[in-house]
């Protein structure tokens, strides 16, 4: 299996090389050169545990890692989840199921990919003998999930920049209360984009990047997308057989990584009717799927901060298929988007995606309505999925991307309940260890090499 770039100007890479590179050298995103057909395997996979299913799945994509090693990697990656099923599928009503993706160490779905990616980094260090410096900027969930993926791993140091005073207090605690000596949570003055710019500039210094063996944490690594395909297959296999024929996955969406994984699983032969892209009031993707025009808006903070995006970084992978796997066309479109212009595409043959958007008021109302109807407490991201439900012959599987206790203020406002979780309560007693720095490239480089 080879990995090619959406922009077509990169030599094919192996899985390990594509994971190590993150972004392709031509600035495109890696994709498998061909997708395997899983339709005949589904019945054999029905009784596997979550880690076993993940190991079977990854063997198709990275044959250079032996089946035995894959089983060990996935068993370790999902060992820190607090539910024996890893991703339990809960029935909310006759036609609505919730796939709980918040049982990992940081209580958000990003743990599914980043627990595994941390182990792949570790494997890379063992094979190359070179220590790794992992660097990223975060507005919350990605940074904490990445830190927990790299926690205590020999040969890896992880540096996460975030805007001082602008991440949720509990998210900061998840990053800064680990007690691990290889973790550096770095608040810098400014907003997320300032932190992000510093990180980009440091990667732009290729000499520094190679001296420190720098690796990026971001949402575009192909290993992250593939790790996320697994829970769509898992959920489908857990549905009652009668419900499997017409199922729509509903996915709270920001950078389009999560829903893209489901869509790829469908291209591999998972019989799913469709997907609904659910956004908050930052609705670039809802506007795209309802009009065919992709145009950036002004970013406004919302109750669902991990979906506050201006440009969906994984969207390029979908574009690649939408334009008929034509890299020249992708390069042109991405140049337009980068220049701040809007692009319009023909979606007349796109029947798989639907979309919806929900503002903050709607989020509060939905948390309250679903709680009063069913007793189930939704986190603000998951709440965005509960609008425009599917036609009556369709089963909805809502992906629940975070535990409500991560966002206690919104939950309290909506239903007057103190949402808690033991792992978050434990954090409150631990000392906060941060490494505040000036918002400058030089200061951060000096900190990394000190
Ligand atoms: C990251 C995140 C999302 C958005 O996922 P994408 O893959 O960026 O679309 C939604 N909800 C939560 C809780 C997240 O952390």
Describe the structure.
The structure is a single chain. This protein is an alpha/beta fold and 450 residues long. Helix content is 43%, strand content 15%. The chain has a six-stranded mixed β-sheet. The mean pLDDT is 95. It has helices at residues 15-21, 42-45, 50-61, 67-77, 110-128, 141-150, 169-176, 192-204, 206-211, 222-238, 241-244, 257-267, 284-291, 315-322, 327-338, 360-374, 380-383, 408-415, 422-428, 441-449; strands spanning 3-5, 30-32, 89-93, 96-100, 132-137, 156-163, 183-188, 214-216, 247-252, 274-279, 293-294, 343-344, 353-357, 395-400. Helix 7 (169-176) links the parallel strand 6 (156-163) and strand 7 (183-188). It has a domain at 87-109 and 223-423: Rossmann fold (3-Layer(aba) Sandwich), CATH 3.40.50.1100. It is built from 20 helices and 14 strands. Pyridoxal-5'-phosphate is lined by residues 108, 110, 141, 219, 252-258, 306-307, 381, 401-402.
List its salient traits.
single chain, 450 residues, six-stranded mixed beta sheet
Describe the protein's topology.
Layout: E1 3-5, H1 15-21, E2 30-32, H2 42-45, H3 50-61, H4 67-77, E3 89-93, E4 96-100, H5 110-128, E5 132-137, H6 141-150, E6 156-163, H7 169-176, E7 183-188, H8 192-204, H9 206-211, E8 214-216, H10 222-238, H11 241-244, E9 247-252, H12 257-267, E10 274-279, H13 284-291, E11 293-294, H14 315-322, H15 327-338, E12 343-344, E13 353-357, H16 360-374, H17 380-383, E14 395-400, H18 408-415, H19 422-428, H20 441-449
Parallel strand pairs: 4-14, 5-6, 5-8, 6-7, 9-10, 9-14, 10-13
Antiparallel strand pairs: 1-2, 3-4, 11-12
Helix pairs in contact: 3-4, 3-10, 4-5, 5-6, 5-10, 6-7, 10-12, 16-18
The structure holds pyridoxal-5'-phosphate.
Pyridoxal-5'-phosphate (PLP) is lined by residues 108, 110, 141, 219, 252-258, 306-307, 381, 401-402.
């Amino acid at each position: 299996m080879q990995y090619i770039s959406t922009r077509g100007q990169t030599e094919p890479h192996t899985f390990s090389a594509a994971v190590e590179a993150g972004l392709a050298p031509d600035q495109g995103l890696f994709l498998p050169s061909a997708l395997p057909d899983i339709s005949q395997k589904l019945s054999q996979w029905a009784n596997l545990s979550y880690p076993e299913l993940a190991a079977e799945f990854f063997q198709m994509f990275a044959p250079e890692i032996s089946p035995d090693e894959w089983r060990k990697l996935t068993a370790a990656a999902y060992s820190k989840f607090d539910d024996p099923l890893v991703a339990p599928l809960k029935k909310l009503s006759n036609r609505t199921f919730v796939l709980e993706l918040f049982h990992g160490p940081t209580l958000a779905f990003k743990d599914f990919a980043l627990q595994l990616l941390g182990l792949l980094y570790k494997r890379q260090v063992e094979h190359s003998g070179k220590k790794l410096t992992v660097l990223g900027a975060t507005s919350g969930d990605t940074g904490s999930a990445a830190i927990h993926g790299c926690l205590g791993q020999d040969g890896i140091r992880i540096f996460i920049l975030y805007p001082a005073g602008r991440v949720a207090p509990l998210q900061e605690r998840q990053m800064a209360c680990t007690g691990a000596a290889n973790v550096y949570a770095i608040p810098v003055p400014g907003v997320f984009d300032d932190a992000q710019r510093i990180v980009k500039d440091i990667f732009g210094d290729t000499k520094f990047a190679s001296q420190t063996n720098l690796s990026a944490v971001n949402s575009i690594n192909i290993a992250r997308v593939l790790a996320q395909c697994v829970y769509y297959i898992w959920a489908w296999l857990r549905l009652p057989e009668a419900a499997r024929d017409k199922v729509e996955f509903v996915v709270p969406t920001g950078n389009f990584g999560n829903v893209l994984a489901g869509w790829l699983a469908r291209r591999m032969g998972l019989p799913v009717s469709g997907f609904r892209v659910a956004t908050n009031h930052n609705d670039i993707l809802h506007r795209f799927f309802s009009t065919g025009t992709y145009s950036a808006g002004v970013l406004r903070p919302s109750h669902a901060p991990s979906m506050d995006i201006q440009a969906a970084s994984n969207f390029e992978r979908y574009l690649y298929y939408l334009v008929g796997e034509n890299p020249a066309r992708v390069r042109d479109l991405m140049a337009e988007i980068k220049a701040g212009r809007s692009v319009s595409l023909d979606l007349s043959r796109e029947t798989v995606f639907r979309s919806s958007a929900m503002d903050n008021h709607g989020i509060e109302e939905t948390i309250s309505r679903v709680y009063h109807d069913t007793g189930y407490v939704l986190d603000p991201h998951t709440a965005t999925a509960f609008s425009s439900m599917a036609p009556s012959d369709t089963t909805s599987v809502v992906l629940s991307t975070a535990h409500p206790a991560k966002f206690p203020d919104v939950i309290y406002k909506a239903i007057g309940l103190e949402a808690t979780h033991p792992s978050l309560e434990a954090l409150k007693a631990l000392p906060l260890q941060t490494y505040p720095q000036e918002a400058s490239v030089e200061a951060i480089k000096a900190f990394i090499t000190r």
